[in-house]
Amino acid sequence: MGKNNKVKEAWNEWSDTDFAKYRSDDRISKLIAQPESAFHPTTYAMIHEAFPSLEGKRICVPSSGDNHAVFAFHLLGATVTSVDISERQLENGAAVALKHGWDIDFICDDSMELSKIKSNDYDLVYTSNGVHVWINDLNSMYQNIHRILKDNGTYLMYEVHPFTRPFGDDTKQITVVRPYDSIGPHGVIPTYTWRMQDILNAIVSSGLSIKHIEEMYAEYNTYWFEVSGEREKMSKEEIEKLYNWKHNPLAAIPQWLSITTVK
Known about the structure:
The chain contains 9 helices and 7 strands, in the order H-H-H-E-H-E-H-E-E-H-E-H-E-H-H-E. The chain is of the alpha/beta class. The protein is globular and about 50 Å long.
């Protein structure tokens, strides 16, 4: 079985189990009330700088996952294409869109190929948190992102900062679990811990021009406990300590990365 087939099968299963909570009525209602909440505030500011209005813009979201960014872009006035390797993620996303009467295209395709996506067709391509870890060929992904963008189109990404990859989740002391240059593949379902140089070199090699980079600390949505659901169990004082590097050394390391590029 190929690497991509293992990833697809895993996400088809997780879509109906672990990730079903992201389609809850409560989460979707909050997204409808405040579409920009689908983005880190710094990332949203970068989107807004590139496109003061998204009305009528054509946007493609490869590896769309929970489709929150897709729904948000639609609610902000864009024409959106959601692309993912997982049929179930797309089917579940399409069910939410149908329930609310949202006109969104859902296409099953590999982000490293985008073979079903027309060239020179999009004003913005956006990838969100958790995409790169599933990509085994960064150059292919970025070459195809470049291909589907219009001339002067924008690619913008939001991702876990590579500097976090060597470290475990111990909030009392820094614990190294792997070398920075141990890229992978890791695990039975293969994942990859790409370095800054891997991401930036792949972007530049594709022909995209880097315009702006932001490295964000743990001022928002601290991933090492947000993803696990631990935040709901913590007191306000405990949460504040997790954001303070003197109490939690992981907070001294940038947690998020956003990059704006132009074709």
